[in-house]
Amino acid sequence: MNETPAPPFDQISNADWVQTPESVKRFVVRLVEQVEQLERQYEALKAENTLLREQLKQNSQNSSKPPSQDLGKGFKPKEKKEKGKSRGAQFGHEGHEQKLYSPELEIRLLECSLLGTV
Q1: What are the tens digits of pLDDT across the range 36-77?
Q2: Which of 37, 67, 96, 105 pairs as cysteine with 60 (C-beta 3.0–4.6 A)?
Q3: pTM of the model
Q4: Which residues of 20-48 are buried (b: 16+ CB within 10 A; e: fewer)?
Q5: Per-domain boundaries in the chain
Q6: Dihedral (Cα; 60, 65, 69, 71), 10-degree rounding
Q7: What is residue 77's DSSP assignment?
Q8: pLDDT level of residue 78 (50, 70, 90 thresholds)
């Protein structure tokens, strides 16, 4: 006689398992094996994830890594203090300008610089 294997899990009674068609039994057994395989993969990935998270937490304070390899918080630009004044010349400021030479004096200075008598 063909001996029926025990049900793959406790939720199915022996009597129900015996009455189940062989094709359904094979399908259920295959599904149970796949679930067990996925559970093993899950545990392996969970362990790897834990290891990688621990590596991310390492810095120069709790490992042998040099401080230059720490993941810094970055540089924050200094906050500029808000002043009441705007940039440039302020309202009411009297400007300073260079005095213009008269054309005659400019020609005389040019002649002197060319002749080297200045």
Answers
A1: 999 999 999 999 999 999 888 887 778 887 887 777 766 777
A2: 67
A3: 0.47
A4: eeeeebeebeeeeeeeeeeeeeeeeeeee
A5: 14-69
A6: -40
A7: P
A8: confident
